[in-house]
Amino acid sequence: LQFQTSIPFCVVGSNQLIEAKGKKVRGRLYPWGVVEVENPEHNDFLKLRTMLITHMQDLQEVTQDLHYENFRSERLKKGGRKVEDEEVNKDQILLEKEAELRRMQEMIARMQAQMQMQRQGGEGDSSATHGYKV
């Protein structure tokens, strides 16, 4: 209840030391007076910090649940699991790579056959070894 009466929190920060009422305090100097950072009558920082520390676990759990439920809702709207889509995509890529590998192996076999034929047909002709057809 103590925190609810303070909402919205009024938080003031400063890194300057100012003299107020005869003593040095961290605060801000305004034409109407001094706002002291560490004075609970001027600043709700201590209340806010206490609330955050005492309710940190609740905040984490609520945030995690909220993000998970949003993620889950979006996934259901899209009609399924992304994992299945990734597996199908991986399978398709694998099939394409295998087809490319077969084409390259066939091309290498043709090139080797051509080289073999040129060696057999032109052993006496040195120019035949330099005229490979790809």
From TrEMBL:
The domain of life for this entry's organism is: Eukaryota
Which InterPro entries did the record assign? G_SEPTIN_dom, P-loop_NTPase
Q: Which residues form the Septin-type G domain?
A: 1-78
Q: Which GO molecular function terms does the record list?
A: GTP binding
Which Pfam families is this protein grouped with?
Answer: Septin
Spell out the protein name for this chain. Septin-type G domain-containing protein
